[in-house]
Q: What sequence folds into this?
């Protein structure tokens, strides 16, 4: 409360002193403040009121040091909240009831009071006590400095949104038009877990993920997404709207999950904002707006900007049971199938200073700058995402120690087969024990993941999962040894170099590049995933190419790869890819009959 009172204006302080200073009962003070501001129960106890009276006296300013990361705290500037409320009014959104699930310093509530003349009630929840009081005084100052013709009842609750009983609000809504408005925390549950925060939802498998997906990261979700799902679960059947500032990834997740939900929402729109300017945050974010109380007939979301809301940039969502990033660009649906090859992710070890090496002066040097004397056989060339800018890679920049040939393999063999390597790894055993991922729990010492027969294929075609570029690199062996990729990359492995070259040429073709533009969200943290890549119908696209067409494409990218190339190899490739597709179809049919 102290910080909130220190921030109020002099005229507000003087008014409070004149109206309340001589009052001794908090009930009487509440009546006066409810008349002035509309806030129901300004003080909840007599002690709160006495604390307030004491703080009205001149005091020294004490700064509060709160780690705002714990709340995903990006306070919305009033310029932005005013702009959003003006936009909603222009959309003829005039609510009777306002709900703000995490109101912070109250910017949205203050803007809503100024812009929505029909408001009858405002409900807000906030976990931070300082913000809770700042909001109360901000509302009080609004009505003191700028008397408004309408003064709704305002119910502000100091509580964690995940503990608060939202049924209290639900019971008060009858035929009213509802607006759920705000800026929920821009932080994920795993980030809060690392901060050992209590500001977490109750443990639950929010999206019914299987155990592996939950462990490997698909179980990680934004707190904002969880809060919006809470709101939709309770209020989507009421007449009204939802308008929330969130990261674009949250909006994608919401639209992606719509077919599995019973939320009655429609007319979804994402209006981009300048997050850097408003929050000094380097993230893509938008105002997500949707209508409540309507069964959705179209599971897509329009994209525009808050600055130019009527200028449609694109539309994304579900088209014929396929999730696409651009409805207009999604023309060649026949390409959207099941890839006849299995895309793999590279090696994961989470111990780069020990496992990743440079080769300097005929010696391997680890990330600690130490020269190593280890056997050469278990050391392989390594390609990382940043290396995949070249279409053809013949020489790796770094090297990696590969301790297993398959996931789960017992690593005790290293002691006998590679004693120098085993000694080196054992010396650094403490660093391996500090790996945080649960995938290493109860596994053999020095275990890695993302390794199998496919890792040791001599020829690979790969793409970075992290970058926006959609080009694919052909990776050739290094000193007759296969080259590995790290876990930020996805790849296909081949035994035959010509098969690898043909697939590489197809993936870099105009057809595939345009198709990827229609299904990939380039502003995602990881634009290219296994799920995305498995949608590329390489077999379907291959049959569109005549031999001369594919040769021209290969020649354009790297004419050296045409050595010993002939038409028979192309038709042999087409035959093999057709057989592979038939085998996959038969396996799928068999599985469905079981």
A:
């Amino acid at each position: 409360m102290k910080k909130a009172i220190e921030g109020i204006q002099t005229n507000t302080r003087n008014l409070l002193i004149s109206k309340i200073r001589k009052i001794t009962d908090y009930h009487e003070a509440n009546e006066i403040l409810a008349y002035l501001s509309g806030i129901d129960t300004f003080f909840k106890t007599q002690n709160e009121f006495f604390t307030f009276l004491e703080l009205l006296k001149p005091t020294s300013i004490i700064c509060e040091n709160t780690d705002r990361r714990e709340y995903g705290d990006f306070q919305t500037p009033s310029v932005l909240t005013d702009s959003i409320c003006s936009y909603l009014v222009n959309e003829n959104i005039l609510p009777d009831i306002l709900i703000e699930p995490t109101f912070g310093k109250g910017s949205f509530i203050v803007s809503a009071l100024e812009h929505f003349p029909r408001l009858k009630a405002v409900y807000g929840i906030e976990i931070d006590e300082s913000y809770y009081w700042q909001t109360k005084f901000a509302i009080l100052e609004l009505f003191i400095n700028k008397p408004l013709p309408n003064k709704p009842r305002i119910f502000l609750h100091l509580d964690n949104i995940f503990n608060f009983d939202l049924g209290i609000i639900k019971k008060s809504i009858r035929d009213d038009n509802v607006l759920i408005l705000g800026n929920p925390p821009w932080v994920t549950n795993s980030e809060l877990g690392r901060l050992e925060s209590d500001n977490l939802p109750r443990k639950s498998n929010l999206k019914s993920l299987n155990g592996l997906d939950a462990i490997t990261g698909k179980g990680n979700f934004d707190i904002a997404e969880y809060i919006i799902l809470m709101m939709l679960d309770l209020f989507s059947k009421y007449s009204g709207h939802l308008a929330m500032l969130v990261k674009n990834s949250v909006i994608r997740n919401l639209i992606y999950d719509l077919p599995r939900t019973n939320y009655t929402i429609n007319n979804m729109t994402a209006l981009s904002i300048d997050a850097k300017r408003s929050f000094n945050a380097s993230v893509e974010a938008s105002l997500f707006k949707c209508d409540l109380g309507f069964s959705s007939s179209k599971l897509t979301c329009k994209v525009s900007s808050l600055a130019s809301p009527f200028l449609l940039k694109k539309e994304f969502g579900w088209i014929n049971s396929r999730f696409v990033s651009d409805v207009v660009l999604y023309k060649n649906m026949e390409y959207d199938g099941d890839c006849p090859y299995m895309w793999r992710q590279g090696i994961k070890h989470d111990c780069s200073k020990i496992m990743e090496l440079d080769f300097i002066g005929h010696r391997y040097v680890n990330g600690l700058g130490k020269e190593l004397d280890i056997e050469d056989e278990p050391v392989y060339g390594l390609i990382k995402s940043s290396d995949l800018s070249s279409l053809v890679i013949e020489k790796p920049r770094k090297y990696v120690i590969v301790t297993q040939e398959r996931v789960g393999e017992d690593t005790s063999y290293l002691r006998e087969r590679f004693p120098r390597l085993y000694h080196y790894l054992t010396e650094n055993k403490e660093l391996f024990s500090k790996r945080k991922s649960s995938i290493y729990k109860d596994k053999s010492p020095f275990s890695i993941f993302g390794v199998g027969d496919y890792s040791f294929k001599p020829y690979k075609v790969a793409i970075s999962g992290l970058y926006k570029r959609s080009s694919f690199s052909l990776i050739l062996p290094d000193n007759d040894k296969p080259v590995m990729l790290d876990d930020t990359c996805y790849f296909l492995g081949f035994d035959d170099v010509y098969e690898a070259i043909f697939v590489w040429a197809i993936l870099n073709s105009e057809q595939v590049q345009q198709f990827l533009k229609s299904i990939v969200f380039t502003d995602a943290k990881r634009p290219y995933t296994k799920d995305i890549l498995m949608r590329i119908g390489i077999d379907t696209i291959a049959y569109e190419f005549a031999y001369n067409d594919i040769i021209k494409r290969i020649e354009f990218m790297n004419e050296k790869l045409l050595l010993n190339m002939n038409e028979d190899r192309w038709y042999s490739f087409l035959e093999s890819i057709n057989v592979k597709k038939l085998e996959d179809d038969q396996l799928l049919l068999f599985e469905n009959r079981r």
Remarks:
- Residues 59-72, 192-197, 208-217, 587-594 have pLDDT under 50 and may be disordered.
- The two ends are 65 Å apart (CA to CA).
